[in-house]
Amino acid sequence: MARPIKNNAEYFSHDADMRNDIKVKALRRRFGHKGYAVWCFLLESLTDAENFVLSRDAISVELLAADYDVSVEELTGIIEYCIKIDLLQVSEDDILYSAVHQRRLNGLIQNRERKRQNRTIGKADTAGNGDIMARQNPAETTASDDNGGAKHSSKGKESKEEESKEKESKVVVPYAAVIELWNSVCTAYPKVVKLTDSRRTKIKLRLGEFSGDPEQWLPLTRQLFDRVQASNFLHGDNRNGWSATFDWLFENSGNWVKVMEGNYDNKGGYRPVQQRVTTASGVTLGVGEYIDETGRRTYGTGRATIPADAPARPSDRYSWDAGSKTWVML
Predict the structure, then answer these.
(1) Do 91 and 186 share a domain, yes or no?
(2) Is 241 left (phi over 0), alpha (psi -120 to 50) or beta?
(3) pTM here?
(4) Are 238 and 62 in contact, with CB atoms under 8 Å apart?
(5) What's the pLDDT at 268?
């Protein structure tokens, strides 16, 4: 499978005198240090985003505000002012970008494409030479050296790139285990019912970003999912009632990093989710659930009776709704 073509960047050039640009000065005068900090945050987000653009819909802005640790109103005001003074531009479909920033990063993309083409040409040349050698030497031949001794022709050493690809091909990506972890840990979110090719690609990319050691992939995935499950913001406790999904988490290299860095942690910091407990009778208990002295499955004050086959309680923010037979957020 060909390596996916990257349409973002890991860094951008930050000029030492950027603060003195006339437009940036206007931004600083209007919003102070916070305006300048948000502008830098926006440049970082644009650099990391596919095709160097950001969505300006309400949910995306709220997520960025949470990431930048500013209010939605503050971020919206700064973005609108940046558009007004032409630091930022907006497309017809409400996509946010910086034309200047894109021009500066286009050189990186073009250089990356040239290298990719050169690698392709190099592989073609190598393959062609190999065919010629194969025709000339269909089998390993033995010849005499200058001293009359036997010498064997060499097939040559594999390139580092080929060795790397060979090692990569031997690594088993635990796609099914990742899906199983999501469905068992992130019970407050929609379950994943199908492992599509698109999901396979994104899982493989993200696992490679988690660690270069495949043995660490599942432990780190478990830590990530625990933080997602523990976040009230990510499962709907926000202004728009938006809830994260598996696909959102694995969509790009930015979302999972923000989760692990604590941008969506509850106030007071991250507390690991209480592990579920399976009783001897096979009933799985969630957060705050227990079996009382009469054998009823319940939680909290013990007023509610929870069916044995109900899913585990996701967190202490959920209560049992007997009518719909589901856990609902308080």
Answers:
(1) no
(2) left
(3) 0.43
(4) yes
(5) 67
- Express each pLDDT in 311-322 by its tens digit: 888 776 778 988
| Tens-digit pLDDT profile for residues 106-156 | 767 677 677 767 766 665 555 555 443 344 444 444 444 444 444 444 444
Contact assessment for residue 203 and residue 250, using Cβ atoms and an 8 Å cutoff: yes
- Gap between the Cα atoms of 7 and 53, Å rounded: 10
Total count of residues recorded for the chain: 330
Q: 4 and 73: one domain?
A: yes
| CB 314 within 8 Å of CB 286 | yes
Residue 192 sits in which domain range?
A: 170-260
- pLDDT (tens digit per residue) in 169-179: 567 888 988 99
CB-count exposure of residue 227 (10 Å: 0-12, 13-18, 19+): buried
Q: Name 190's Cβ contacts closer than 8 Å, sequence gap at least 6.
A: 243, 245, 246
H or E stretch including 96? strand 95-97
In this structure, the answer to whether residues 37 and 125 fall within a common structural domain is yes
Whether residues 130 and 19 share a domain: the answer is yes
Mark whether 82 and 204 lie in a shared domain. Answer: no
